[in-house]
């Protein structure tokens, strides 16, 4: 490469598959001629990740201001025609595969099931072990836990993940904490017992208290009947196999309900007869079994005949206090941005989000403060956008209730809620200037993306000003946020069956576990710190104290 006197770099630009020396490019170089390499240097490094980040928010079916196609920036994990969070995780995974020697390039397809051979459910992979460096308890000091990527230009480290323990004054009060696997980390999740987890592309759902994979990759689970074709099927959760043989889809999102059941998206359903498809699932964890869970239910809404929607890009899942399950699919073309509601009575409702100007939905969050509310954001925006929108939908009919504009934050990556006050916390980032080039020496790169956090008080119609997280150490790119502060007590966990009150159903569960180790759902509800390992009079006293009490928000 040749450097000009004004420090702008002459770079090799790519158009129509031909290489030529061009004038200074108007946008980050995007090259689509080699597998996984999007910068034209015939390698896959942090430079490719940063190039994808620089085009964040656009449709991959378009072009950047330099006239370069963005199609190759849409990673195969989620071919939804958006350049979004899942593409960043994909390139993070790709660079990890190559740097760890698991493959030499990404010149291979990642099919839903094995591309050239029948699927097998006998594969098992051990979770990588390492010396824990983050807190081995959930005793964080703040109310908000943010997971994101650090920026360390000196070490050219732009891909490492850290946990940042923050308070409600936008200050770091703990960390940054490094995880044993400090790459490819996505959503943070909190369960019904206040345990914290994080989704890792390679390792599945990882519990932060001991860094064990509670939903690991590399397993299949057989079910007698799947909902689309009515066939026996194998269900695969997480990526399967390794390197060039990788298939399946990584877990994108997980949610726990009050009874301890786990809801996961996506899962791959491979029926005995019929094409494999992506769906969502309800699981019961069973740590002594292989795999360590049972698949209880598959959530799927089969496409209509001759439908051209692509509904294999399931990204997020939520469950409300009434047992309704919300699932989001992302897809720019053919109106494939879809929100499904799987009601507890078996009815399924489907909503086209683009009709509400929501493109590339992200950050789905069911309110537990006001169960009539559902929060979501849109991925699609200009890379250098200086504001974003929080959409408030009604859980009754999915109508748009309100749009709250958030200034200073160009891109929303995740949303969480303080269940005590209804305040919604929105994490994201902004890129003040559309970057014109990446320096040849990344150690000289100026940080072109900045972390932001916004608090939207319940009832606030906006606009809201996001705060630049200047007191969060080396946090540069927030990817997930979770409320880790106190949660209002709802019947002291005596609502065992999740039906919203304490009544005969809860008593029946307790009686079935009487003087035994707890089952699922657990009737071991006393003491509040996590029970004592036995269902006894202490638990009965809690249940009796809340008898016939309404446990709703």
Question: What's the helix and strand layout?
Answer:
Elements: E1 2-3, E2 9-10, E3 12-15, E4 18-21, H1 46-54, H2 85-99, E5 144-150, E6 161-166, E7 172-177, E8 185-190, E9 196-200, E10 204-207, E11 212-215, E12 220-223, E13 233-236, E14 253-256, E15 262-271, E16 277-285, E17 293-299, E18 314-319, E19 325-329, E20 338-342, E21 348-352, E22 361-366, E23 373-378, E24 387-394, E25 400-407, E26 411-417, E27 424-430, E28 450-456, E29 464-465, E30 467-468, E31 475-483, H3 504-512, H4 537-545
Parallel strand pairs: 25-29
Antiparallel strand pairs: 1-2, 3-4, 5-6, 5-31, 6-7, 8-9, 9-10, 10-11, 12-13, 13-15, 14-15, 15-16, 16-17, 18-19, 19-20, 20-21, 22-23, 23-24, 24-25, 26-27, 27-28, 28-30
Helix pairs in contact: 1-2
